[in-house]
Write a structure and sequence with these properties.
Elements lengths: L5 H31 L1 H6 L4 H21 L3 H6 L1 H26 L4 H7 L1
Length: 116
């Protein structure tokens, strides 16, 4: 046993996941600081194309890290809940937008569906 008992292994796992979350939070805060604090923004001059690639890759890293923590067994058990949250709520929102556009702005239903 390299790390000792099971409790020690679990605590080491929790600490390492907490440190990983803190590093991601630190990277996000530094990015926000460089974008919004004027004297820091002047220190880092990058081309717009490079910043766009960096933003997309950072977003991809965040999504991949979040997806790696998912429990697929839990998704299989909560299949109906996921469907209701993902599909039904979207359909209710679409219907509300179409009805609001039709009755408030006097847009016909076909145009409200196309624009909404």
């Amino acid at each position: 046993k390299f790390f000792g008992s099971r409790e020690k292994q679990n605590s080491i796992g929790h600490i390492s996941s907490f440190i990983s979350a803190l590093s991601l939070l630190g990277v996000l805060l530094v990015g926000i600081a460089f974008k919004n604090i004027p004297f820091l923004a002047d220190l880092l001059l990058l081309d717009e194309g490079i910043t766009e690639v960096l933003r997309k890759s950072a977003f991809t890293v965040i999504l991949v890290r979040a997806a790696m923590g998912f429990d697929m067994g839990l998704f299989r058990k909560a299949n109906g809940v996921i469907f209701r949250l993902g599909i039904v709520s979207t359909l209710v929102e679409i219907i509300a937008i179409v009805l609001a556009a039709h009755f408030i702005f006097n847009v016909n239903v076909g145009m409200a569906i196309l624009l909404g």
